[in-house]
Design goal:
Layout: E1 11-13, H1 18-27, E2 31-33, H2 54-76, E3 83-92, E4 95-97, H3 103-113, E5 117-127, E6 137-145, H4 150-158, E7 179-183, H5 186-190, H6 194-203
Parallel strand pairs: 1-2, 1-3
Antiparallel strand pairs: 3-4, 3-5, 5-6, 6-7
Helix pairs in contact: 3-4
């Protein structure tokens, strides 16, 4: 049977995020990690371009990650299988809120979100075994933060949870106490929209 018609028992996940690993496990998808090599400049892929809109940014970064992951697989001589990639960002006032560099930066971001609505954008894509990028999907959710007092934001930032998370919070963690309303995909806000992901994995003939 050719690769075009084969069914694959696992997918490579090109992400270090434990939330994405948890969500794939929730779907019943077997996966193996395909992480950047030490010599790869993974952070440069997430650099913003001047004047770039958040929707364009998150899609561009996802596609760039997908291409880098495919090159990594081929260069490493690994068993061929589809590759799953995703990228998440938070946007408010047309600004992109990435991962905070420290607790003070996290407080600045959270203060900006407090008492307001913002968008969480997660792009997800799959590279098939021929190296073709299946049409990436974009999940857009709106999140409303309550008007949280600054001392509560500082305590949350000091916990360390905001570090490594776009917008300086994790919906599945302690920040849930700040969230008044969600309109969209909870799993997308976590970092991997399961509806869109499942459709892409089935299109890539992943068995789950």
């Amino acid at each position: 049977m050719s690769n075009q018609f084969a069914v694959f028992p696992f997918v490579y996940l090109a992400s270090q995020s434990p939330r994405r690993q948890e969500l794939l496990t929730q779907l019943g998808v077997r996966f193996e990690l395909l992480l950047p090599r030490p010599d790869e400049d993974a952070e440069s892929l997430e650099a913003e371009l001047p004047g770039e809109r958040a929707h364009d940014y998150v899609m561009r970064v996802c596609i760039a990650k997908a291409r880098a992951a495919r090159e990594r697989l081929v260069a490493g001589g690994l068993a061929n299988a589809p590759i799953l990639v995703a990228d998440t960002t938070v946007t408010i006032d047309d600004a992109i809120l990435g991962k905070p560099i420290d607790a003070d930066d996290a407080v600045t971001m959270l203060t900006r979100l407090a008492g307001r609505d913002h968008e969480v954008l997660t792009s997800v894509a799959v590279v098939d075994v021929q190296g073709e990028l299946l049409a990436p999907a974009l999940s857009v959710s709106r999140v409303r933060f309550a008007a949280v007092q600054s001392d509560a934001l500082r305590r949350y930032a000091a916990s360390g949870e905001p570090l490594g998370k776009a917008g300086a919070y994790g919906v599945q963690g302690r920040a849930a106490e700040f969230i008044e309303h969600i309109d969209g995909s909870y799993s997308g806000i976590m970092g991997l929209p399961l509806f869109e992901t499942a459709a892409l994995l089935r299109a890539a003939r992943i068995d789950f």
